[in-house]
């Protein structure tokens, strides 16, 4: 999958990378501005400083959002260009032609069922399967670069404030490295079965006009299995985040009461955990999309290869 991404959009990935870097480099700046407003400006009563820090916060937020807009629009273009290229590839490969050419009437009769099945598969590839594969191309490299950059930036900033913020971040992220891959593997198996089943359903529609009940039921069961695993994973991830916030508030509150920690630092660490939760969730989603779309791409490429071989030998 990554090889395909680099072949089709390598130069655009290089263009997306600086935009992603610009976004994650700005991520921890608002946290520091918040800390300074709470700790320094309010405590000293420096009205002018508060105003300028608030203006700086708004300015940084505006620049960050502008970079995100440029990044997302560019990603969208790269993704849609990849979808268009995939569909053109299918057309140029001759998917509109049956793999079994009509040599005689008897051969046509024997091959008609296979042709109907192939037509259903090809229709599914052109209409639905090209979309998620091409859609992943735009985010294939810039997304993990962006989200990993945010994680490193925020964890580094929080650790510079308090050493125990590093242990808190590790306690938030490391357990998820154990259960997320296992659950994702279970999703991948169901996603691969779902693609194959939908192809059979497409073949049934072309051959008989209606799909078999078994195929419909199988797709339903696979989708429900994916939903259950996916949302169970989300529940566990959200619980880890809220547990980390509760610990930060508890430990930070106690240290603030004892005057061993400034209130602004507690605010910055809690806000930093929020900035860890979103990129971590996005990174998990990227891994999910990468795994599922890699399966789809492999099936896609296999089907295209078989069709080309059939046309060459027909």
How would you describe this structure to a colleague?
The chain is built from 8 helices and no strands. The chain has a single domain (2-313), classed as ABC transporter type 1, transmembrane domain (ABC transporter transmembrane region fold). Helix 4 packs antiparallel against helix 6 (164-208), helix 4 (105-137) runs antiparallel to helix 8 (263-313) and helix 5 (142-161) runs antiparallel to helix 8. With 314 residues, it is mainly α. The longest helix is centred in the C-terminal third of the chain and has 51 residues, at 263-313. The protein has helices at 2-26, 29-44, 47-92, 105-137, 142-161, 164-208, 213-257, 263-313.
What distinguishing features does this structure have?
mainly alpha, 8 helices, ABC transporter transmembrane region fold, 314 residues
Helix-strand blueprint:
Layout: H1 2-26, H2 29-44, H3 47-92, H4 105-137, H5 142-161, H6 164-208, H7 213-257, H8 263-313
| Proportion in helices | over 70%
The CATH architecture classification is Up-down Bundle
Number of beta-strand segments: 0
**Approximate shape:** elongated
By helix and strand content, what is the structural category? mainly alpha
- Tell me the strand percentage band: under 5%
Main sheet record: none
The H/E string reads HHHHHHHH
Q: What is the overall number of helices?
A: 8
The chain-level mean pLDDT equals 78
- What would you give as the CATH superfamily? ABC transporter type 1, transmembrane domain
């Amino acid at each position: 999958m990554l090889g395909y991404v680099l072949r089709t959009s390598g130069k655009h990935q290089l263009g997306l990378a600086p935009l992603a870097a610009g976004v994650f480099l700005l991520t921890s700046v608002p946290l520091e501005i918040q800390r300074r407003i709470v700790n320094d400006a309010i405590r000293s009563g420096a009205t002018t400083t508060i105003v300028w820090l608030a203006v700086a916060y708004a300015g940084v937020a505006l620049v960050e959002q502008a970079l995100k807009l440029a990044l997302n629009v560019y990603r969208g273009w790269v993704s849609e260009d990849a979808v268009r290229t995939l569909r053109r590839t299918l057309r140029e490969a001759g998917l509109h032609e049956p793999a079994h050419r009509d040599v005689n009437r008897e051969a046509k009769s024997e091959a008609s069922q296979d042709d109907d099945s192939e037509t259903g598969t090809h229709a599914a590839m052109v209409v639905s399967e090209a979309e998620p594969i091409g859609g992943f191309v735009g985010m294939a490299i810039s997304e993990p670069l962006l989200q990993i950059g945010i994680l490193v930036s925020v964890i580094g900033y929080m650790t510079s404030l308090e050493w125990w913020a590093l242990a808190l971040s590790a306690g938030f992220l490391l357990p998820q490295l154990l259960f997320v891959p296992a659950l994702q593997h279970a999703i991948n198996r169901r996603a691969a079965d779902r693609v194959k089943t939908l192809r059979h359903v497409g073949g049934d529609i072309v051959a008989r006009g209606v799909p078999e009940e078994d195929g419909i039921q199988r797709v339903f069961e696979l989708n429900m299995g994916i939903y259950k695993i996916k949302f169970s994973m989300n529940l566990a991830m959200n619980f880890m985040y809220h547990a980390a916030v509760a610990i930060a508030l508890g430990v930070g509150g106690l240290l603030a009461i004892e005057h061993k920690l400034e209130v602004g630092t507690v605010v910055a660490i809690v806000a930093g955990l929020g900035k860890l939760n979103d990129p971590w969730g996005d990174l998990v989603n990227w891994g999910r999309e990468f795994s599922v779309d890699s399966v789809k791409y492999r099936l896609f490429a296999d089907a295209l290869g078989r069709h080309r071989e059939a046309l060459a030998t027909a």
